[in-house]
Automatic annotation (TrEMBL):
It comes from Acetobacterium paludosum. Residues 71-232 form the Alpha/beta hydrolase fold-5 domain. InterPro entries: AB_hydrolase_5, AB_hydrolase_fold. This is Alpha/beta fold hydrolase. The keyword rRNA-binding does not apply. The lineage of its organism: Bacteria, Bacillati, Bacillota, Clostridia, Eubacteriales. The keyword Oxidoreductase does not apply. One of its GO terms (molecular function) is hydrolase activity.
Length: 249
């Protein structure tokens, strides 16, 4: 029979362990990459794009020449969502309504179906592209795999799918930087079998992992030889050229 004193000591030890685990988790979740000034400036409406927040969505709406095509975006893991405002602003300037989905603890895995809120908030958009960066891209591909009837296109930025999309009719565009040292190249190559045969792969020469957003240097990433603005401009051009063109057919 265990003595009362030992039980109390055991409970005390368990309590200490739980507190340590909770502190560790909160520290991990609270440590993330913050959006820079360029990103915050892109959250301001101008003559070409109106920016507004609705619940957990940041919506970028073209002021003119708007199409019925929308792009819903999942941010990279532990990156402040507003870091992707410059890219979304660029796409909106091209006539595409864009939406960034805010994620609990800046981790898309906690809001896999976040795209549903965007689609509900913008019923006037009839065709949707979903995309994401890094972890956000992987989770966006999970959504696409489970909601083929809702999604016309998928854009992966420094990312690869978890689930098999090879038999779907979804138009897939995969963009990655030549200097990306975060992307697992072995897993990336293996995941190509999960993508449709007509998937477009585009390597951005000089680009790295972090320059798809504006949140500073990412630990472990390669050194880019082009600016974040240039990498995002190329990304925008490829999305418009591939995704918008295909969906318009």
């Amino acid at each position: 029979m265990i003595k009362k004193g030992r039980i109390q000591k055991l409970i005390g030890v368990i309590g200490i362990i739980l507190v340590a685990v909770i502190i560790g988790m909160l520290t991990y979740l609270g440590d993330y990459y913050h959006a820079d000034k360029t990103a915050h400036d892109a959250l301001i409406s101008d003559s070409q794009v109106t920016v507004e927040e609705k619940g957990n969505l940041i919506i970028f709406t073209p002021t003119q020449g708007q199409t019925d095509i929308g792009f819903v975006f999942y941010p990279g893991g532990k990156v402040e969502v507003s870091a992707y405002a410059p890219l979304m602003h660029l796409l909106a300037e091209k006539g595409m309504t864009t939406v960034i989905v805010k994620m609990p603890f800046n981790l898309a895995v906690f809001n896999i179906n976040g795209a549903d809120a965007a689609m509900e908030a913008l019923p006037e958009v009839s065709k949707w592209i979903i995309g994401g960066h890094s972890l956000g891209g992987a989770i966006a591909s999970d959504y696409a795999a489970e909601n083929e009837e809702k999604v016309s296109g998928l854009v992966l930025l420094g990312a690869y799918p978890n689930k098999d999309l090879s038999q779907t009719k979804i138009t897939v565009l995969s963009l990655y930087g030549s200097e990306d040292h975060i992307l697992n190249r072995t897993a990336f190559e293996a995941a190509k079998t999960k993508m449709p045969a007509d998937t477009t792969f585009y390597e951005i020469i000089g680009g790295n992992h972090g320059n798809f957003g504006n949140y500073g240097e990412q630990k472990g990433d390669g050194v880019s030889t082009i600016s974040a603005a240039d990498q995002q401009s190329i990304t925008c051009e490829r999305i418009v050229e591939k995704e918008m063109a295909e969906i318009r057919k």
